[in-house]
Amino acid sequence: MRNHGFVKVQREAFKEALQVIKPSLSKQVGDLQKKLMVTPDTVHLKIEERTNGNIFSYTFIVMPEPYNCPVKEEITPFQTAETPKDKEEMRKSSGHTFQSTEKNVIKGAQTETVTTNLSNAYASDLLPSKDSKDLTKCFLLQVVNILLNYIKKTFDVKSKILDFHHPHQLLEGLDGLDLELSDHPESLEQLLVDCTDTLKYGVKTGHPRFFNQLSSGLDVVGLAGEWLTATANTNMFTYEIAPVFTVMETILLKKMYEIIGWRETEADGIFAPGGSISNLYGILVARYKQYPEIKRQGMTALPCIVLFVSEQGHYSVKKAAAILGIGTDNVIEVKCDERGKMIPAELEKNILQAKTKGQTPFCVTATAGTTVFGAFDPLHAIADICETHRLWMHVDAAWGGGLLLSRNHAHKLSGIERANSVTWNPHKLMGVPLQCSAILIREKGLLEACNQMRAGYLFQPDKPYNVDFDTGDKTIQCGRHVDIFKLWLMWKAKGTRGFEAQINRYMELATYFYKILKKKDNFKLVFDAEPEFTNVCFWYFPPRLKRIPKGFERDQELQKIAPKIKAQMVEEGTAMISFQPCGDKVNFFRMVFSNPATRQADVDYLIDEIERLGKDL
Ligand code: ABU
C-alpha cells in the first residue's frame, strides 16, 4: 500500500476529522488502526481493519470547507494492494468498487460536509465509463473544493504567498508530493492529494502582496472562463469546431481596433500565445509587406534589412530577429532619455547611419509601457519618422495597451492609431488569466497573405458557411488555444468602465506608493518624477550603506541589497517583488500594480517589510 506521507495527527485535528465522519463509525474507530494525513486543505483519515488475514482499508477525505451540494458518501471495504502488481491485479479484477448512495451526507450547522471514498477509484472509472456520472461528479466537486480553498487562501493577506523549496527538493519529492510518474495508475484520491500539493508548493500570484510580475491577480470570472474553455477543449483554427469562440474573437478584435482608433473594415488581428509571439507577428508582417517574395525565396532574396527598438524595448524583438533569420546584429538599439523613452532624434540618426552603411531599414518597434520603467515612447514623433522613411511602425503595447481603457491616462499612448501593428496583452494590466495576447494589424489581408498555406484538410473553401471565420491560416501555428472566452466573459462582467476603474485604481496606488517613498530617506527613487505608469522603481538603503559615500564602493554593496531582501521575503513567503540592474544602475526593486486584490495597506506592508528585512544588511 502506498504511503501518502501520513503523519501522526494532533489530537485536535483528529477530533476535527472524526466530527465529520458518521457517528456510528467513529464509535468503532477505537478498535481499528487509524492513520491520518493532514494537509493544509484536507484531512485524510485512513483506517485499516485486519480481520481473518484480510486488510480492509477505509479512506476519507475530509474537506475543511465543504462544497455546498449533495454528494454521496461511500465506504467500501477493499483489499489493499501491497505492490504495484497487486494493485494492478486488484484493479483488473474488481472494476471500480465505488458505489454511491444519496444517504449519509453529514450536514453541519451552516454547510454540508461530505466525505467520500476515492482511494479505490481510478481515472478509468470516470466518465465516459458506464454508470460513472456520480463518481465523476464527486471527483470534480472535490477538485473544485481544493481550488476554492486555494482561492480563499490566495485572497487571505495572512496566508503565505509561497512555501519556497529549491528545485532539487521538488525533484527529490516532498512529504506528500511525489512528482515521479509510474507505469501504474494512481487512485483518484491520490490525484486529489497531488492537486492539493501542487497548489501548496506553487505561488499565489493573486495574493494581494504579489507584485512580482506584470501579470498578476486572480479574476474569478476570468477563472470561470478558463474552466469553461478547458471543458470545451476545442481549437481556434476553424469556425467549424469553434463557432462561438471564433465569432467572439472577431468581436473583441473589433473592439480593440476601435479603442486604438482604427477602422474595423481595414484592420485585422489574431490572439497569439503571449507578447513575444505577438511582437514576432508584427515584425514578420512588416517584413512581408515590404518584401512579399520572402515567403517563397527566403532571406537570400532580401538586402541586409535592419529594424530599430529602444534600449528599453522588450528582448523579444531581438528574439524575433533571430527566429526570422534577420539576426540580432541587425536590431539597432536606440538611446533613451532618463525616463526610459526612446529619443526620436536618436532614432532618426540611427536610421540615417544604417542607410549610409548600406543597410536597409524596414521597421521600428516603439514601446508603450516598457517592462522595467513603464515608459511610453513618444509615438507621434516616431510615427513621423516612420512616415518620412517609409518604415513599418510596430507598437509593443503588451503592458501599456490596457491604459487605453482609461480616459484619464489613454493620452499617454497618443499616436498609437498611426501604428501599422500593435501588440496588446489583456493578461497584463487588464488582469485576464494567462494567457491572452493580441496582435493587431492595421491593414486587412496581410496576416493571411503572409502566413497562409491552405492546408486542404482544414481550410476547405467549399464549406457550408462563411469561411472568413476559419481564421487558422492567418497564424504561424496550426492548433491554437482558445484565449478569447475568459476575456469576453470578463468584459461582460465588468464592462469597459469596470476595466477603466480597475486600471485607474492601479495608477492611484502607484502614485500613493511613490509619494510615501519620496518622503522616506532610506529609500531612493530611480526617477524623481511622478510615475507615468504603475511601475515605481527604487532602491532601499540600509543604515550601514547610508554612511558610505556615493560611488563605486557603495554601488557594489547596494547591488547585493535587493537580492538579499527578496531572498528572505521569498523564504518567509510574505511578499514578492522583482528586482534587476539596468544599464549603469545597480540592482533596484521594481514595484508594479496590476493586482486587483492589492490595497493601500499592502503597499504600506511592503515598505515596512523591506525595512524589516533590510535594516541590518
Ligand atoms: N515581458 C514579460 C513580463 C515581464 C514581467 O512580468 O516582469
Automatic annotation (TrEMBL):
Keyword field contains Lyase: yes
InterPro entries given in the database record: PyrdxlP-dep_de-COase (IPR002129), PyrdxlP-dep_Trfase (IPR015424), PyrdxlP-dep_Trfase_major (IPR015421), Pyridoxal-P_BS (IPR021115)
Region (Disordered): 79-99
Superkingdom field: Eukaryota
Record has Glycoprotein as a keyword: no
Modification type N6-(pyridoxal phosphate)lysine: residues: K428
SUPFAM superfamilies named in the record: PLP-dependent transferases
Compositional bias of kind Basic and acidic residues: 83-92
GO terms, molecular function: glutamate decarboxylase activity; pyridoxal phosphate binding
Cofactor requirement: pyridoxal 5'-phosphate
One of the protein's GO biological processes: gamma-aminobutyric acid biosynthetic process
One GO cellular component term noted in the UniProt record for this chain: cytoplasm
Any single Pfam family the record assigns to this protein: Pyridoxal_deC
Protein keywords: Decarboxylase, Lyase, Pyridoxal phosphate
Recorded family membership: Belongs to the group II decarboxylase family.
PANTHER family associated with the record: GLUTAMATE DECARBOXYLASE 1, GLUTAMATE DECARBOXYLASE-RELATED
Subunit record text: Homodimer.
Name of this protein: Glutamate decarboxylase 1-like
Gene coding for it: LOC103676246
